[in-house]
Amino acid sequence: MHAAPTLVPVLILLPPSEGKTAPASGAPVDLSSLSHPALEDHRRRVGDALVRVSGQRNASEVLGVGPSLSPEIERNRTLWDNPAARAATVYSGVLYDAAGMATWDAPTLERARAHVRIVSALWGAVSPADPIPAYRLSMGTSLGRIGPLAALWRRHLPRELDAVADGRLVIDCRSASYVAAFRPAASPWVSVGVQRELAGKRAVVSHMAKHTRGLLTAHLLRDDALPETAQDLADAAAGMIGDALVDVALTPRAKGPDELTLVIAG
Q: Known Pfam families for this protein (predicted)?
């Protein structure tokens, strides 16, 4: 079991990826070994419900997936017996691929253990170093008697994640459904948005937003001087201007998070 999290200058919040790489071998998940062990009972409850729902005829409807993903629903049924591996290698979507997370060396992974939390519909919050199995479950799901998962985690994540942030800078790379599960309290909070500039006009882009947030995450963890303020973050992001970015803009907000906009070329 990990010790209680130490205070850190920055906390990076990531969404999980829909795409996951199932470990070929290894021991099953040990819930007591994951970051934030106080969430163990809630993780067990959600996982048990996921196993039950995945065995029902209407599983694809409840989980919001099409017929092509039926093997992933079937895999959910053996969740507690399936091999587990580091979340850094299990999550394999666009953001994680851009960050190169599966190939992070040991020092980078240890920095990620302290500075990164992946907000998950199943686990609540884990670090990239935590061993988990592959699964199919999104935060927008209403799961049996548990109900909407964002509402469940909204009751339990603040106690855990606000303790890790504790007034430090929170860099939020999540989508709206995962923000609904946890909104930082007193911490300085910056939401990272991405726009594409084409013919002098800027527009939000979903796929490249994930890619660019992944590049930013890797960029920050490679830098020994992690940002402590929103302006520090903007300055650090400006170091990516070139092939990846053409502009960086920081917009303070009176309510909610400040907005850091990363602009990529069309």
A: H2O2_YaaD (PF03883)
Inter-residue contact 27 to 133 (CB < 8 Å): no
Closest CA to 118 of 129, 105, 110: 129
For the chain, what is the mean pLDDT?
A: 92
Does residue 1 lie within any of the structural domains? no
- The answer to whether 138 touches 175, Cβ cutoff 8 Å, is no
Contact 212, 99 (CB under 8 A): no
Please tell me the total count of domains within the chain. Answer: 1
User: What are the backbone angles phi and psi of residue 264, rounded to the nearest 5°?
Assistant: -110, 155
Average the pLDDT over 150-170 and give the result: 94
**Residue 167 near residue 187 (C-beta atoms within 8 A):** yes
Q: Return the amino acid letter for 239.
A: G
pLDDT of residue 224: 63
